[in-house]
């Protein structure tokens, strides 16, 4: 079947049964929302019961002494894998039911459960590997919110990109896994629809995709691109229409904006479902899969769903609709987001053409002219217990001198010159940096870099020397080391302290005032929980406008960036949009492309 024929066939099938497909995908999203909420709750419960405040690479050794936590989390992982399998069984069996024209949610739940129960321990172990490592590379077809956190954080990718060897190795690994993902595309349909053993399904999938890697890659790209392009053409037309309505007298612009934003949301949902069906039919119309679709078979009489089930569905639908309308009113009137704090990363502006060397006085003076809310900077202890502004644990990268800051005195360090991107400046003491900031009335976000070489009195000295200054000038402190955070909150609770997290696995239970979260896995759930517990969230390190818009849409309290000028302009455009057309365009820029 040609790509154009497949496109027409799948499109006709989708729009002929659009309501049923929308019900299918809507019910999946409801189940996933409940599942994600439950998994978050259970993971938090396990950690709290074992007195583990958070999960990070910095505290993995704690689990060696908490076997019950390991057992609990492993059991949760097992249930997660089963839930993901159930989701895809529900999806594929639902598509088959619609294809056979006897769609019934109650029967679908039962069928999905039966398929799940037929899986063996061997199948479970295979799908553990498949879902965690392979499936994310074929997410265009098989996508699940339950694996949203299976990603490589941006800061790690940035580090890898600066190292040729690591970049090459990662690229090769990505190509290998991507190749396997395409070769294994048919495993889930064969196991779920064909009820084949996993081993046989793997063999048949390899046979079906033999010498056809680029064939499937191309068709996936074409089908996905066409559906997405058509969706955005409609979005552009809606924005143009709204721009015209914005010229009218009140209340017509707002009424038009309510209708148009609702249309954007509806089209996004329909477009996402349509794209999913297009890509699924790439697999389900294969001659080897068609027999399992059961088209033309004698259909069992359709069972009427229980009255309570229909009432529940209607309640969910009406409730969702009302919440969407309320959100639209608030969003269009600029009431859903606050203006985030603008935080300069390491005291500089611009990656390509920086206004100075990171963590130096000349850069600070230039950056203060741009008036950020905070300047984020780094300090480390010196040999004699003083503090120096320095990010890296090894001086070699910026100064050319071997060793750590803790191995040199402050006088020795301030004689060194740091060089970066053709610029240079003297290493600054923290006292000098702090004094310069205070004179310019510039608030600092002071990151304390902890090291095994630090003295036992480091934090005590820091508090005694700088507590009064920090409180007087409204500076804040943050650290990636949880011991630093707990010491500050126990000995100087008045100081605003942020705990830096590189990964959002489970919402942490700490005494910090703020969480500085790496943006890759930061989501609305984390932010809602933080705000519910009266904590702020700073996102780091955001350097592109798309992610800046996303973070503002999520309502973060602060954005840490290397691109200070870009962020200021983006906030101005995003938050102070003078008309509804711009607000709708901002909304379109942050909505996901898939369902």
UniProtKB/TrEMBL annotation:
Major enzyme class: hydrolase
Enzyme Commission number(s) from the entry: 3.1.4.46
Transmembrane segments: 21-47, 67-93, 120-138, 164-186, 220-243, 263-284, 312-332
Annotated GP-PDE domain residues: 340-571
Organism: Vagococcus fluvialis bH819
Gene3D superfamilies in the cross-refs: Phosphatidylinositol (PI) phosphodiesterase
InterPro entries: GlyceroP-diester-Pdiesterase_M, GP_PDE_dom, PLC-like_Pdiesterase_TIM-brl
The name this protein goes by in its record: Glycerophosphoryl diester phosphodiesterase
Annotated GO MF terms: glycerophosphodiester phosphodiesterase activity
UniProt keyword list: Hydrolase, Membrane, Transmembrane, Transmembrane helix
Domain of life: Bacteria
One annotated GO biological process: lipid metabolic process
Record has Transmembrane as a keyword: yes
